[in-house]
Amino acid sequence: MTIATGRIRDKSLSKALRPTTAPGELIMTVVRFVSHDGKTHAVPVEEGQSLMQVATNNAVPGIDGDCGGEAACGTCHVIVDPQWSECVGPPGADEEEMLAMNPEREPTSRLSCQMVVSDVWDGLSVRLPEFQM
């Protein structure tokens, strides 16, 4: 889904099928949260927000963010699509410490509170574990 100057367009279409952008249109970055049961929540994001803020502001189920973004609770655990792992980057030291205690950790696990959204993340997909810590 893309928001362009107040309009919402479906960006799940392949690039070849997407409508072209009119001059002056503002296209927002969209991230997909995929729940453990396969439901997808496509959410427009703004650069500079944390991915946890994006999820909680848009009522994405499965992201709690109990500590408010301090990497202290692990309730915003996401698993980054491996194709996006390099683009998103590795966890920091504090984040790594929290992830090490998570039994559902996977190689591309991150705490969404520590992921600052970038415009180059358009199309990013993250999977949510069945349970948060």
Automatic annotation (TrEMBL):
SUPFAM superfamilies: 2Fe-2S ferredoxin-like. InterPro entries: 2Fe-2S_ferredoxin-like_sf, 2Fe-2S_ferredoxin-type, Adrenodoxin-like, Beta-grasp_dom_sf. Residues 29-132 form the 2Fe-2S ferredoxin-type domain. GO terms for biological process: P450-containing electron transport chain. Keywords: 2Fe-2S, Iron, Iron-sulfur, Metal-binding. One of its GO terms (molecular function) is electron transfer activity. The keyword Kinase does not apply. It comes from the Bacteria. This is 2Fe-2S ferredoxin. It comes from Nocardioides panzhihuensis.
